[in-house]
Write a structure and sequence with these properties.
single chain; about 10% strand; alpha/beta
Length: about 210
């Protein structure tokens, strides 16, 4: 099976979709920071793919890309909560998050500051820009690109049809509700691929020369 990249922004249902892929029997990583992870996971979501999908498209010919959309009002409330928690470790010069997290968030959420995070217009602009860029990039490639909102009842069927997968399920299991962000850590599955090598990352990922 070709690589599958779930390129929706954080807080759009990436954990729920990754959990569905595990149930489909697909090796899956929710975030990926090592070459091993990219080599061994078929489906990868969240960081760094939401920012690096163009380079991934060049490096993995035939890959499929799934954009997770979400109604902006609940997304803004959810991403604000996440970004406020992450802000210090994203912006501190002496450590904090790993280089891939910092690069992707600070590129997608430009001019990140506490003041901006607290502005609905700023967050809406980041969302709209990210979605518009993805639509423009994939505008003539309906065989490679699917856009779904997992809150909509037809989204699961659209996903399985896009990938040619049969499943007894008819909907996604909703996870990380109410601000929770750790549901993926609680999932035990033999096809779950660790994002790091026991906490260590690779400075260079397989495709980073194309960024």
């Amino acid at each position: 099976m070709s690589k599958i990249f779930i390129i929706g922004l954080p807080r759009t249902g990436t954990t729920s979709v990754c959990h569905a892929f595990l149930e489909f029997g697909i090796a899956t990583a929710h975030t990926a920071y090592t070459s091993y992870c990219f080599e061994n996971a078929t489906a990868i979501a969240d960081t760094p793919v939401f920012n690096d999908y163009r380079a991934l498209d060049s490096h993995y010919p035939g890959a499929k890309f799934i954009y997770l959309a979400r109604e902006k009002t609940p997304w803004i409330a959810s991403i604000r909560q996440l970004l406020l928690r992450m802000h210090t470790n994203l912006t501190r010069p002496d450590g904090g998050f790993n280089i891939h997290i910092k690069r992707c968030y600070l590129t997608t959420f430009t001019d990140l500051s506490i003041d901006n995070i607290n502005q609905d217009d700023y967050l809406a602009k980041c969302y709209n820009t990210h979605l518009a860029n993805a639509r423009e990039y994939f505008k003539h490639r309906s065989n490679d690109y699917l856009e779904i909102d997992i809150a909509k009842p037809q989204s699961f069927a659209l996903l399985t049809a896009f990938l040619g997968i049969k499943s007894e399920r008819t909907d996604f299991e909703k996870m990380n509700i109410g601000g929770k962000v750790t549901a993926w850590n609680d999932i035990k599955h033999p096809l779950k691929i660790d994002s790091t090598a026991k906490g260590r990352i690779d400075k260079h990922l397989p495709y980073t020369s194309q960024l």
